[in-house]
């Protein structure tokens, strides 16, 4: 499903380069739950952002569902991003001016869905996450755990094949963190969604069926 072949990421500095990722080779199969660990500055988030088409690799090839993303134009990349990938962020990244309902609906506005289809999908997710009573609230009126649930619901709205989660429990207390991780486990095991998470937590990493360790931009 995901293949990285000698993927590197660098930034130019003067006449030289500073490498964030170096020659990363990685394969992730459909239905896997993979945890990426490593110290701060090891390149974890950059690696996830490349997988999520939020950043381009400087070198190497990235294949998603056997398609070489590196060779696609921006329009094709955007379509892949919208239709295949759901992203969950540590800082939630909800839109402050939109209600819970509107935040969940946002990804669907970019798809060719009728208003009734959108309403049905959002209603389904609100019900699933027990957020029906909070659908008209704004993010600042929710707890951190509730905001992250909305973030997960938004990521699921478009029925993605893959969820990429960047420190999804980093701002949550332990009970809320466990709720989010159990939810990911259920999505993976019962619905077959491929999940790749970046985490500092060994406890959270253990939810995955494989742990990848990064150090100085390399897999060790």
Describe this structure in words.
The chain has 220 residues and is of the alpha/beta class. The chain has one domain (2-219): P-loop containing nucleotide triphosphate hydrolases (Rossmann fold, 3-Layer(aba) Sandwich), CATH 3.40.50.300. It is 34% helix and 28% strand. The protein contains 7 helices and 10 strands. The protein has helices at residues 44-51, 74-84, 100-105, 115-128, 144-156, 174-191, 202-205; strands spanning 2-13, 16-28, 33-37, 59-64, 67-68, 85-89, 162-166, 194-198, 210-215, 218-219. It has a 6-stranded mixed sheet, sandwiched between helices. A 4-stranded antiparallel sheet has the order 2-1-4-5, covered by helices on one side. It is globular. The mean pLDDT is 91.
- The CATH superfamily bears the name P-loop containing nucleotide triphosphate hydrolases
Overall geometry comes to globular
Q: Please state roughly what percent of the residues sit in beta strands, choosing from under 5%, 5-15%, 15-25%, 25-35%, 35-45% or over 45%.
A: 25-35%
What name does CATH use for the topology? Rossmann fold
Specify the CATH architecture.
3-Layer(aba) Sandwich
Proportion of residues in helical segments: 25-40%
**Strand count:** 10
On the 0 to 100 scale, the average pLDDT is: 91
Question: Low-confidence parts lasting 5 or more residues at pLDDT below 50?
Answer: none
Number of domains: 1
CATH class: Alpha Beta
Q: What's the oligomerization state? A: single chain
End-to-end separation in angstroms reads 22 Å
């Amino acid at each position: 499903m995901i293949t990285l072949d000698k993927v590197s990421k660098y930034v130019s500095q003067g006449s030289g380069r500073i490498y964030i990722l170096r020659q990363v080779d990685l394969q992730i199969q459909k239905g896997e739950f993979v945890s990426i660990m490593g110290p701060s500055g090891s390149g974890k988030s950059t690696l996830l952002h490349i997988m999520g088409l939020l950043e381009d690799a400087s070198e190497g090839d990235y294949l998603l569902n056997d398609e070489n993303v590196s060779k696609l134009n921006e329009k094709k990349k955007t379509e892949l991003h919208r239709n295949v990938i759901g992203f969950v962020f540590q800082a939630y990244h909800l839109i402050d001016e939109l209600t819970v309902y509107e935040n969940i609906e946002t990804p669907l506005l970019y798809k060719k869905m009728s208003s009734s289809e959108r309403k049905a999908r959002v209603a389904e997710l609100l019900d699933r996450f027990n957020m029906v009573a909070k659908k008209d609230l704004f993010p600042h009126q929710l707890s951190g755990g509730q905001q992250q649930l909305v973030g997960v619901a938004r990521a699921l709205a478009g029925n993605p094949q893959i969820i990429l989660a960047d420190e999804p429990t980093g701002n949550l207390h332990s009970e809320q963190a466990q709720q989010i991780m159990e939810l990911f486990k259920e999505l993976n095991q019962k619905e077959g969604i491929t999940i790749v998470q970046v985490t500092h937590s060994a406890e959270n990493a253990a939810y995955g069926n494989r742990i990848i360790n990064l150090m100085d931009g390399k897999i060790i």
